[in-house]
Specification:
10 helices, mainly alpha, 243 residues
């Protein structure tokens, strides 16, 4: 365990050593933005919209007491989506999609000795492979902001068109006791999670050993560890920022 942690931090140090020239790096970053961020828009939008709808419907169905105001449906949807669902649950889903892709792509390069070829040519392979992913996932807050918006939109549509609450009441719930720092808190978590999504899968792909079968195993282990660390960091950041 300690060996893995030590190698992980050594890898992070090497990411910023002996950088690849900018003309090459620029193309690598644009490719990673397309693969990791833009390529994830569809699944993030789909899940966010419908989970936001489900949260609002479940809240509405549980508000059976006539003394409880209907605008709490909007309030509960906003709090659930912004504080936890968008930054944390989407990040765990992305650990499966993006993390597995990163691990398998780097692991395949390790198996086919392409990483060794980069080293022979005098290229810092860790910087070449990991740095573009790290920079690309700095756009991750954009993805989570979209998730927040679509989650709330899905909740509004499900509540209003499902006949659970009027549009005015739902919007009143969205505005009620709104704390702007909650958005900042969610985006801070998102930046940390984006860093973890770029580096932990890269570590498992870069240092894997074996053949094609081990690439699949490395992707599975990468998903498990990325998810575990995201959940732990979620707890620590919530304690520090909201505690």
């Amino acid at each position: 365990m300690l060996t893995h942690i030590g190698r992980y931090f050594l890898m992070l140090k090497e990411v910023f050593n002996k950088p690849t020239k900018w003309s090459v790096m620029k193309q690598l970053i644009l490719k990673e933005v397309d693969d990791l961020v833009i390529g994830s828009l569809g699944i993030v939008a789909f899940i966010s919209f419908f989970v936001g709808g489900v949260v609002s419907i479940q809240t509405a169905l549980n508000l059976t007491n006539p003394l409880i105001p209907k605008y709490l449906i909007g309030f509960a949807t906003r709090q659930s989506v912004i504080l936890e669902f968008a930054p944390t649950l989407i990040s765990i889903i992305m650990a499966g999609k993006v993390g597995s892709y990163i691990t398998s792509s780097i692991g395949t390069m390790r198996v086919t000795e392409q990483i060794d070829a980069l080293e022979v040519m005098g290229v810092n392979s860790i910087n070449y492979l990991v740095f573009p992913k790290l920079i690309a996932l700095q756009m991750y807050p954009f993805l989570i902001s979209l998730s927040m918006f679509l989650g709330v939109l899905g909740g509004w549509m499900a509540s209003v068109y499902g006949g659970f609450v009027s549009s005015a009441e739902f919007v009143q719930g969205l505005q009620n006791d709104f704390i702007p720092f909650h958005i900042t808190y969610a985006l801070i978590k998102t930046i940390v999670f984006g860093f973890l999504l770029a580096t932990i899968p890269s570590y498992h792909g870069y240092f894997m050993k074996g053949g094609a079968l081990e690439v699949g195993k490395a992707s599975t282990i990468s998903f498990v560890w990325t998810s575990v660390v995201i959940i732990l960091m979620n707890y620590l950041l919530t304690q520090m920022l909201l505690g």
